[in-house]
């Protein structure tokens, strides 16, 4: 049996190593996908490059280190994230990504589309719907 991944027609398969791209002056980000619910990007860092400290007010984030080592400040704590590891944090957490090593660093991050969060807040909860439908 062939070990090559084959995705059904309704899905997308990404060769992350083939999508890597680097530039001498700044990190390179590429959108992998953006759906109504989820989006993902790949970001490639030469040694010394970084993403500035920032916060996402609505969405949680998960960052997978594909290659190299990412140094991150997460909510004021320094974290070293080696290749093959992933870090996840909730919304409102200040974080950055830095490549302090001598080798290239590649990350893939995943975030929930903020529109989904707004839609979920606008909908009544299941309990509220069940409770309102129940007439004792």
Secondary structure tally: strands = 9
Run of helices and strands:
HEEEEEEEEEHH
Shape: globular
Provide mean pLDDT, rounded.
Answer: 86
Structural class: alpha+beta
Major sheet summary line: 5 strands, antiparallel
CATH superfamily: Jelly Rolls
Unreliable residue stretches = 125-136
- What fold name stands as the CATH topology? Jelly Rolls
Give the strand order of the largest sheet, numbering strands 1, 2, ... along the chain.
Answer: 1-2-9-4-7
The level 1 CATH classification is: Mainly Beta
What percent of residues are in strands? Answer: 35-45%
Radius of gyration: 19 Å
Q: State the domain count.
A: 1
Q: How many DSSP helices?
A: 3
Label the CATH architecture: Sandwich
How would you characterize this protein structure?
With 136 residues, the protein is α+β, with helices and mostly antiparallel strands. It has 3 helices and 9 strands. The strands form 2 sheets. A 5-stranded antiparallel β-sheet has the order 1-2-9-4-7. A hairpin with a 2-residue loop joins strand 5 (69-74) and strand 6. The chain is globular. It starts with 15 loop residues before the first helix and ends with a helix.
Write a concise keyword list for the protein shown above.
single chain, about 140 residues, 3 helices
Indicate the topology.
Elements: H1 16-19, E1 28-34, E2 38-45, E3 50-54, E4 61-67, E5 69-74, E6 77-82, E7 86-89, E8 95-98, E9 105-112, H2 114-122, H3 126-133
Antiparallel strand pairs: 1-2, 2-9, 3-8, 4-7, 4-9, 5-6, 5-8
């Amino acid at each position: 049996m062939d070990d090559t991944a084959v995705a059904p027609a309704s899905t997308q398969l990404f060769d992350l190593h083939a999508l890597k791209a680097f530039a001498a002056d700044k990190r390179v980000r590429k959108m992998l996908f953006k759906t109504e619910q989820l989006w993902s990007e790949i970001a490639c860092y030469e040694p010394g490059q970084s993403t500035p400290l920032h916060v996402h007010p609505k969405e949680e984030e998960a960052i997978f280190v594909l290659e190299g080592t990412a140094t991150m400040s997460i909510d004021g704590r320094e974290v070293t994230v080696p290749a093959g590891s992933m870090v996840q944090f909730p919304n409102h957490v200040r974080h950055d990504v830095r490549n302090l090593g001598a080798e290239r660093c590649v990350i893939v991050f995943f975030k929930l589309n903020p529109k989904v969060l707004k839609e979920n807040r606008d909908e009544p909860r299941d309990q509220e719907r069940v409770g309102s439908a129940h007439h004792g």
